[in-house]
Give the backbone structure.
Amino acid sequence: MNGTKINVGFIGAGSIAGTHAAAIAEVEGARLVAITDALPERAAALAQEYGAAAVRDVEALVRFPGLDVVYILTPPAVHGEQIAAAAAAGLPIVCEKPLTVTLAEADEAIAAARAAGVPLMTALSHRYHPLAAIVRAMVQSGELGDFVAAWSHRLVNLPVEPDSWMNDLRAGGGLALQYAMHDLDWALTLGGAVAGVSAVQSQTNPELAIADNLWALLRFAGGGSASIGTSWSAAQPHVERGVVGSRGNVRIVEQKRLVGALHNGRTIEQDLGDDYDWFDVFVRESRDVVDRVRRAEPFAVTGEDGRRALEISLAVLQAAQTERPVALPLAPEREMEERT
């Protein structure tokens, strides 16, 4: 490492980069030092805000002197080539989810990092939510008994611009890969391997070219199920996650309050307070990244974790597009259809 600071570089300077930059600024011992973006003026603006250098392209970014870790914060369709460039430069990599938009690209990205001997992280930020971590620990310890079911329903009003890459299924994977992936990953961390999925989707926003509502049912190989419901166009936002076990059940309400009960009579309640800010998960994530880079340790959320989340997300998208159940592991990929 270079002195006492961990030097961070960004590939991409869009809205999510602004969030990560603010999070890194909260982490002692870390600093954002270099940024590149396809729009040079956007990189320059973010660099000026955080006292970093704006560099011309990806190659210049990964060769920036003293860099310790690279964040890839670009549209998913270019993640694979950027992971390969950072790996070739010998740098640890944090890549925003989805890792890539196809499993073949994910396998190539993971192989590139492994061949270079560098750690690759998929930035599944929801894993850093403190109440979610408590629930995962309860399931893994057996405190809730045998796993029966889980759910994650996140209905929000997200302003997706019609000319954004997020409105391009091939560039970003649509609602399944851009949003529901967090909910599907939540289910995976609780129920384990998925045997099959079914799903339906609908388009209620006529300005978009993709579905803005998605509902899925997962069947786990080891028993149990999960219900996933997501929307980008909800008039009244609502977020709730939960788990049912043979000895009790818990739920997380609006990402701020954990409530539940066990069959032995014990009640469970933990409140983060009405002023809890979701930005906290990005700070926790960045702090963990910086600590692990400093200690030269593997990341807590790996490229392989990202591949698993991608596989289930692609399976759900395929099930919604074909209106047929899809078995896992996923069959050889076909191109994502440009329809809803």
Observations:
- DSSP finds ten helices and 15 strands in the chain.
